[in-house]
Amino acid sequence: xxxxxxxxxxxxxxxxxxxxxxxxxxxxxxxxxxxxxxxxxxxxxxxxxxxxxxxxxxxxxxxxxxxxxxxxxxxxxxxxxxxxxxxxxxxxxxxxxxxxxxxxxxxxxxxxxxxxxxxxxxxxxxxxxxxxxxxxxxxxxxxxxxxxxxxxxxxxxxxxxxxxxxxxxxxxxxxxxxxxxxxxxxxxxxxxxxxxxxxxxxxxxxxxxxxxxxxxxxxxxxxxxxxxxxxxxxxxxxxxxxxxxxxxxxxxxxxxxxxxxxxxxxxxxxxxxxxxxxxxxxxxxxxxxxxxxxxxxxxxxxxxxxxxxxxxx
Length: 313
Prior knowledge:
With 313 residues, the protein is of the alpha/beta class. Helix content is 34%, strand content 21%. The longest helix is centred in the last third of the chain and has 18 residues, at 264-281.
């Protein structure tokens, strides 16, 4: 039987724990938008790491949180569905702060999955924790994780709980993580071609990179009310890509903030997004942005459907 190992690994966690940063670090290149703002990730995305003797297909997910609108319901459903039928679950936690109510809710959710799927508790942001404080913090999260993998009679029902410490932003501990995952994955041939690194097209990633630029540039009251709609994505004869996109906000006041005085903010967003898209695609990009008010789009089923954020029945 082949010694090659392959499988799907879902990364679950609350908002802003570093899931997309981890995916980018593992792949060695940027495929997922990242920002300091929670809920930067809004859809599942695969990150495909092909090694000489294994292929690890990471599933990046939106952060699980208490939803306040239909968009939030969609994000939570995306994350929960990603737990079904995978080979390993990584629960990524922020070790720089104690467990929150969101972490406790995730532990409860994992009880339905971790009894039959190997669970790896990964403490991220360990570079932000004093060495003397890290063992106690690890113990807090370990207790929650064990509550997920223990069966009704107190016996572990799967391969047990693995615990790792990393810093995704500093790329620390990633080698140990890959080694552990290779031990847990089944012996199986690769699912995807060696050269493929994600399941999304360049157009879809470009839309996320525009939204990332918005999140990085704008003040606190706008980002969660913002979406990006790709209107055009064309290849030009000179090798450039032409991209037209609309930034959707919920109120007129937000539109003014996104545009900025004399259009300065929109120009800054466009410049930052264009740079990231060009680095991703390896070619020049002409990016045209406009801003439109779509009142309360996060609770509008039609608007959510057009943007690809809709709750599946």
